[in-house]
Amino acid sequence: MFVVMLAYLVRRELERAWRPLDMTVEEGLDALKTLCTMTVTVDDGHSLHQIPAPRPNSQQLLDALDIKMPNALPSINIMADTKRKLPSRRKND
Question: Which of 22, 31, 49, 69 has the most other CB atoms within 10 Å of its CB?
Fold first, then answer.
């Protein structure tokens, strides 16, 4: 129940913040999918994730929520797999 109510509150806050931009929550989240990082490795082997400047429409969405993006994030070398693995052998239809 807690997670459902939290999701409802987040959605409601996004709707409130993005209403003046004439954008739905779905459209806003879709626009924010373009945010990315670039891994930068320095001579001593340390690396960080540099965050490029967001596109203008993404920046408007972040500004409406009063979110300030950092310029970089430290790299902690944790690998996360977010896509389902394909079977090693596919069936031919």
Answer: 31
